[in-house]
Amino acid sequence: MLSLLPDTRKHIKDLYNIERDEIRAAGLLKPWQTSGSIQATRLAFNLFNGFNGSRGDRKIESEHLYTPYELLNGSLCEYCLEACRLRFYHSPQYERQTINEEYEEPE
């Protein structure tokens, strides 16, 4: 998600610490952020480690900004959904579950 938009690509070091493999939450408050780039950043942070606007007891943003309604709304929706598919479908934590096609009516 962070490489999707020119703004986030250009300022990747404001958003992610490569050496320490961690997000930089303060990057959400940078003046270069646009509505689209901040939406992509929020989703990327949330998919990376479950970030929801808080770091310990320090609140950076309201948690409601990290709901699916907020994160998947707008012109980037298809990209956001694909990022979710990649994160959960290809994650080692995700175990694909099959669905029994034969539905039996309860007695």
Describe the structure.
This protein has 107 residues and is mainly alpha-helical. It has one domain (6-89). 38% of the residues lie in helices and 7% in strands. The strands form two sheets. A two-stranded antiparallel ribbon has the order 1-2. A hairpin with a 2-residue loop joins β3 (54-55) and β4 (58-59). The model is unreliable at 96-101 (pLDDT under 50).
How many helix segments?
5
Label the overall shape: globular
Distance between the termini: 48 Å
Q: What is the count of β-strands?
A: 4
Number of domains: 1
Overall pLDDT, averaged?
83
C-alpha-based Rg, rounded? 17 Å
Taken as a percent bin, the fraction of beta residues is: 5-15%
Low-confidence stretches: 96-101
Largest sheet: 2 strands, antiparallel
Short recap of the structure:
With 107 residues, this protein is mostly helical. 38% of the residues lie in helices and 7% in strands. The chain has one domain (6-89).
List the helices and strands and how they pair.
Elements: H1 6-10, H2 12-15, E1 16-17, E2 22-23, H3 35-49, E3 54-55, E4 58-59, H4 68-71, H5 77-89
Antiparallel strand pairs: 1-2, 3-4
Q: What labels would you give this structure?
A:
mainly alpha; 107 residues; two-stranded antiparallel sheet
